[in-house]
Amino acid sequence: MTVTELAQQLSLTVFHMPEPQLEITGGYTGDLLSRVMCRMKPGHIWVTIMSNQNVAAVAALSDAACVLLAEGVAPDEELLIKARERGINLLGSSRTVFPLCGELSRLL
Amino acid sequence: MEDTIKLTYEISGSDLLQAGEASGLLKLRLKQLGIPQEVIRRVSICMYEGEINMVIHANGGTADVEIGADDIFIWLKDTGPGIPDIVKAMAEGFSTAGKKARDLGFGAGMGLPNMKRCSDEMTVTSTVGHGTTVFMRVHIGKSADVASGRLLHASPATPGYDI
């Protein structure tokens, strides 16, 4: 499933989507950045409630397919700037992490 | 013809939010050199974790990188307070990061373990009150072609532990 297909299926908010056709191969959820770097694999969707600019750095160096900000979290202005600079797909949802990950598991 | 490419990055200790600049620049350079994606990912994680550690604990430092045909060598040097117990610091989950760092998502106690996991060789040398040097080697796996010429072989690296 591509990033844009997922965004449509789950009616996600699109904050930035420079690479809509990237394939999502799995996912990881977490907010501790080092743990995310340890566990997340290239092509994964990363579900988090962190919204500072370090999220863009971690997503970029981990080759994440996209970042999904859960629970209605909006990205900081600096995160948006970094996402644009680094070509990161950045999506959002008002749902809480548990049901969101349940839906992702069903779809991916 | 150059055997290795040498790069140096100054890591500013002023702002944790800005950390990641050096690893971002290195990632871009490695992409330009045609280094395999998985190797770039591992090197980027090593560099990023190192940067974060230097900002949180040592008010910045220097990263020296050598890109050879077979390996990428990284030396992270700081003049911070040093690590009293390296074995303890290497344990997953151990962290002395403060609240500010934790609020930003750092301080999971996975930094050094991540660096060890993503590198093929890692050595930490530290003197309390003087600073810390972390040496890492990441094997490329195959020779890389670069725009300016082919990298034939890497020069033997001599880690600079004179902290």
List the helices and strands and how they pair.
The complex is a heterodimer of chains A (108) and B (163).
Chain A: H1 3-9, E1 13-16, E2 26-29, H2 33-39, E3 44-48, H3 54-61, E4 66-69, H4 77-86, E5 90-92, H5 97-107
Parallel strand pairs in A: 2-3, 3-4, 4-5
Antiparallel strand pairs in A: 1-5
Helix pairs in contact in A: 3-4
Chain B: E1 5-12, H1 21-32, H2 37-58, E2 60-67, E3 71-78, H3 86-89, H4 99-103, H5 111-118, E4 121-127, E5 131-139, E6 145-146, E7 149-150
Antiparallel strand pairs in B: 1-2, 2-3, 3-5, 4-5, 6-7
Helix pairs in contact in B: 1-2, 2-5
Folded structure, characterized:
By secondary structure, chain A is α/β, with parallel strands linked by helices. In chain A, 40% of the residues lie in helices and 19% in strands. Chain A has helices at 3-9, 33-39, 54-61, 77-86, 97-107, and strands at 13-16, 26-29, 44-48, 66-69, 90-92. The longest helix of chain A is centred in the C-terminal third of the chain and has 11 residues, at 97-107. Chain A starts with a helix and ends with a helix. The mean pLDDT of chain A is 96. With 163 residues, chain B is an alpha+beta fold. Chain B has a single domain (5-150), classed as Histidine kinase-like ATPase, C-terminal domain (Heat Shock Protein 90), CATH 3.30.565.10. Chain B has helices at residues 21-32, 37-58, 86-89, 99-103, 111-118, and strands at 5-12, 60-67, 71-78, 121-127, 131-139, 145-146, 149-150. In chain B, 44% of the residues are buried. The interface between A and B is medium-sized, with 21 and 26 residues.
In terms of per-residue confidence, which ranges of chain A show pLDDT below 50 for 5 or more consecutive residues? none
CATH topology of chain A: Udp-n-acetylmuramoylalanyl-d-glutamate--2,6- Diaminopimelate Ligase, Chain: A, domain 1
Question: If you average the pLDDT of chain A, what whole number results?
Answer: 96
State which percent range the strand residues of chain A make up: 15-25%
Quick one: how many beta strands of chain A?
A: 5
Ends distance of chain A: 7 Å
**What is the string of SSEs of chain A from the N terminus onward?**
HEEHEHEHEH
Assign the structural class of chain A, choosing from mainly alpha, mainly beta, alpha/beta, alpha+beta, or little secondary structure.
alpha/beta
Compute the number of helices of chain A. 5
Strand order of the largest sheet of chain B: 1-2-3-5-4
* Share of helical residues of chain A: 25-40%
Could you give a short account of the major beta sheet of chain A?
Answer: 5 strands, mixed
Specify the structural class of chain B: alpha+beta
Detail the poorly predicted runs of chain B: 142-163
User: From N to C, what is the helix and strand string of chain B?
Assistant: EHHEEHHHEEEE
| SS elements, strand count of chain B | 7
Please state the average pLDDT score of chain B. Answer: 85
Shape of chain B: globular
How many domains make up the 3D coordinates of chain B?
Answer: 1
Number of helices of chain B: 5
How do the strands line up in the largest sheet of chain A? Answer: 1-5-4-3-2
